[in-house]
TrEMBL record:
Name of the protein in question: Polyprenyl synthetase
One BP term from GO: isoprenoid biosynthetic process
Recorded family membership: Belongs to the FPP/GGPP synthase family.
Source organism of this protein record: Chitinophaga cymbidii
Keyword Metal-binding: yes
């Protein structure tokens, strides 16, 4: 990460200013909430991908790149605000979520505000291609969330559905981030599409990592078992259900269905998943997507920017938070 800060530290700082400026409001309540959001920023991985993807191509970064980076982060923020409403989640980035502090009613409207503020950034600059790239992502994310609600409570969910869900709900935005970054420079349609595919692979690896955290795979004291409590079936559990004995499967299903609020029982499921090789399998899948992303990157000539993107990819799979 230090290497990336050196490479694009100044650009990231400029981006932060633009982000804060872009979400300002003259409605006092909204402005207060925007301050709260700006102060508790996340890892800012997506704007990093936008900026680095732009720098890969000749011409380098420009106003369009900054606008794309701000748009991506604003949309990301909007989707998280809505996601915490959908998931009834009271925490985000180690702080209270918007719905925890201001209730669902306000959180829904804050998400709507951010969504439209973001889209207007491109529209006001007649940047229809970027608008289209990003609108597509938001559409896919909404579909992914609904697919997840429809499918992941089914205890017979298959791997292909899991990958379809995470491709839409998470990877689509990273894919669009990389495409928009490339497009903001001199990249051709083909190059932009390659970068979209690159971002999609990274995004899938990113969500698999998030799902692994829930099984304590990193041993870092992050809360575990939340997905199981919510009966959200992710890859480690899907693998275990498909490869375990009938007795084991029945046992797990019984816990997930009837004892999902019992900490000891949830830990028992986590233990069974670990024993069955569900974690190892999931990790291997994650690395497969990471490597597919890296091989797309390696089609491009070697450079310090390519190196920076490579470390950012490795960060998404090696991170401890
Ligand atoms: C994170 O999943 C995925 C978020 C996508 C949210 C998209 C929405 C669509 P997680 P974590 C709600 C519509 C949004 C609009 C139109 C603004 O597994 O663990 O819940 O970070 O992620 O909560
Ligand atoms: Mg959530
Ligand atoms: Mg969610
Ligand atoms: Mg999660
Ligand atoms: Mg997460």
């Amino acid at each position: 990460m230090e290497e990336i800060k050196q490479l694009i530290g100044k650009e990231l700082q400029d981006f932060e200013g633009k982000f804060a400026e872009a979400v300002k409001s003259d409605v006092p309540l909204l402005d207060r909430i925007m301050h709260y959001i700006v102060k508790r920023k996340g890892k800012q991985i997506r704007p990093m991908f936008v900026i680095l993807s732009a720098r890969l191509f000749s011409g380098g970064i420009n106003e369009n790149t900054y606008r794309a980076a701000a748009l991506v982060e604003i949309l990301h923020t909007a989707t998280l605000v809505h996601d915490d409403v959908v998931d009834d989640s009271l925490e985000r980035r180690g702080f209270f979520s918007i719905n925890a502090l201001w209730k669902n009613k306000i959180a829904v409207l804050v998400g709507d505000y951010l969504l439209t503020k973001g889209l207007l950034l491109s529209l006001n600059n007649n940047d229809y291609r970027t608008l289209q790239i990003l609108s597509m992502a938001v559409k896919e994310m909404s579909e992914g969330e609904l697919l997840q609600i429809e499918k992941t409570r089914r205890l017979d969910i298959k791997e292909d559905i899991y990958f379809e869900i995470i491709r839409r709900k998470t990877a689509s935005l990273l894919a669009s981030a990389c495409a928009a970054g490339a497009w903001s420079t001199t990249a051709s349609e083909e190059e932009t599409e390659r970068m979209r595919l690159f971002g999609e692979k990274v995004g899938i690896a990113f969500q698999i990592k998030d799902d692994l955290f829930d099984y304590g795979a990193a041993n870092i004291g992050k809360p575990t078992g939340i997905d199981i409590r919510e009966k959200k079936m992710t890859l480690p559990l899907i693998y275990t259900l498909q490869h375990g004995s009938t007795a084991q499967r029945r046992h797990i299903i019984n816990i997930v269905k009837n004892y999902n609020k019992d900490k000891d029982k949830v830990n028992e499921v986590i233990g069974m998943v670990k024993e069955s090789g569900g974690i190892a399998y999931t990790q291997q899948k994650m690395l497969q997507y990471r490597d597919e992303a890296l091989s797309i990157l390696h089609e491009l000539p070697e450079s310090d920017v390519r190196g920076g993107l490579e470390s950012l990819v490795r960060f998404t799979t090696d991170r401890k938070f």
